[in-house]
Specification:
Layout: H1 3-16, H2 28-37, E1 42-48, E2 56-64, E3 69-75, E4 96-97, E5 100-102, H3 110-127, E6 134-140, H4 151-160, E7 167-170, E8 182-184, E9 186-187, E10 189-198, E11 202-203, H5 213-226, E12 240-247, E13 255-256, E14 259-268, H6 274-289, E15 295-300, E16 307-308, H7 313-326, E17 331-333, H8 341-344, E18 350-352, E19 366-368, H9 369-390
Parallel strand pairs: 3-6, 3-7, 7-18, 8-17
Antiparallel strand pairs: 1-2, 2-6, 4-5, 5-19, 9-16, 10-14, 10-15, 11-13, 12-14
Length: 396
């Protein structure tokens, strides 16, 4: 194992040993700051709050001045481990067994943070002076939670304080079978909603004296399912509507309830906007419920917008680095759930590349040590290629 690989592993273990379940930091940012300051990074912890939400600690660290400004982004917060007795290796012990590093966050995404932090530190120290640009890290503790006091507010702070990056790489898990499978160049949007149908309560033996909202709700949902939202687009898979819960709250078997509701999610591509989707769903529901003594309300949460990064030098350089290290040519993908890249795309071009998705959020989450080594090498080569390509010209 090389010195760089040892630094990556040491940093990954240090991060995993901090039980930073959203919104707790539990010392994770301090572990990162210690490593970055060895390469002259200026580190600033940013605590943001908002009424009704927990305060969140974030980190912005930067070395160098001016353009090109390359930012690495990620999150040190993790989902809860669940039943810790179900883990073969304690979730926050960072144990190594059979060539794998175990622990909550190993794959999502403390492992990747360790990789790009170690790669950045190694590159900066190798330069012994002028970088010909800047490298920064945007690290949040609010990605697995509501994402209110994290990346959006850090980005606004960066923009207001002359730290707007030219390009960004997010270290989210992107690969399914091996390092080098896929680079994410975009994400579908996400729209959550609640459909509530109200009717007339009554005795099940006298249905003509009642109006069953459950029947109307089921018919409306089935009508939406009957027709696909679309058949995909050039870079995106088809949009999909999925019911996630149906709730009546009726403890009696002989009473037709007064109301019923369903919660749902729409993952949508670039053929739709949130407003158009909302109108489409209302148009599908209205005729099904009309004339049945039923009324409905349809409420939506704020959407996560879809985005697509324009293809160009950023993804090409990353693909080159991946190929040089692994021998594989990654596909350019927009699959998967949402990420904080949906906020970053409003400030600069952004791509995502990280570890495997195989064990994320699972019991015994882990990452092969060989994957950490490969990913560190990819990030290190990407940084080098980035400054070779964009150095000396205005990347903005």
């Amino acid at each position: 194992m090389s010195d760089l690989d040892e630094k990556t592993l040491e940093l990954a273990q240090g991060l995993i040993r901090c039980p930073s379940v959203t919104p707790r930091d539990a010392g994770a940012l301090g572990v990162l700051v210690k490593a970055l300051r060895s390469a002259r990074f200026t580190c600033k912890k940013l605590n943001f709050t908002e009424e009704g939400t927990a305060p969140v600690d974030n980190l912005f660290a930067r070395v160098g001045n001016g353009s090109p400004h390359l930012c690495f982004a990620g999150h040190t917060d993790v989902v809860p481990p669940g039943d810790e007795t179900a883990w073969r290796h304690p979730p926050f012990a960072a144990e190594i067994a059979d060539g794998r590093l175990y622990g909550r966050g190993a794959a999502d995404m403390k492992g990747a943070i360790a990789c790009f932090a170690a790669a950045a530190v190694d590159y900066v120290n190798s330069r012994e002076g002028e970088l010909g640009g800047s490298i920064s890290l945007l690290i949040t503790g609010d990605e697995e939670g509501p994402s209110i006091n994290g990346t959006p507010k850090v980005l606004a702070w960066m923009d207001a304080n002359d730290n707007r990056p030219d390009h960004c790489l997010v270290g989210e898990p992107t690969n399914t079978k091996r390092i080098g499978d896929a680079i994410k160049i975009g994400r579908r949007g996400s729209l959550n909603g609640t459909l509530r149908v109200s009717g007339v309560q009554g005795h099940v033996a006298y249905p003509h004296l009642a109006s069953n909202p459950v029947k109307g709700l089921v018919h409306a949902l089935a009508h939406i399912y009957d027709s696909p939202l679309d058949y995909g687009s050039a870079h995106f898979s088809p949009s999909n509507f999925e019911v996630t819960s149906i709730d009546v709250g009726n403890p009696a078997t002989n009473v037709i309830p007064a109301s019923a509701e369903a919660r749902f999610n729409v993952r949508y591509n670039d053929r739709h906007s949130p407003d158009a989707l909302k109108a489409h769903l209302r148009e599908k529901i209205q005729p099904i419920l009309a004339g049945n003594d039923l009324s409905f309300t349809l409420d939506f949460e704020p959407p996560s917008h879809q985005f697509l990064t324009q293809l160009g030098e950023l993804d090409s350089l990353l693909s080159q680095a991946v190929n040089e290290v692994t021998g594989h040519t990654p596909i350019l993908s927009t699959e998967g759930g949402t990420s904080d890249a949906r906020y970053i795309k409003d400030y600069c071009p952004v791509v995502e590349f990280g570890l495997l998705t195989e064990t994320i959020h699972k019991v015994d989450e882990n990452v092969p040590l060989s994957d950490l080594q490969q990913l560190t090498a990819i990030y290190r080569r990407f940084i080098e290629l980035y400054f070779q390509t964009f150095g000396g010209r205005n990347a903005g």
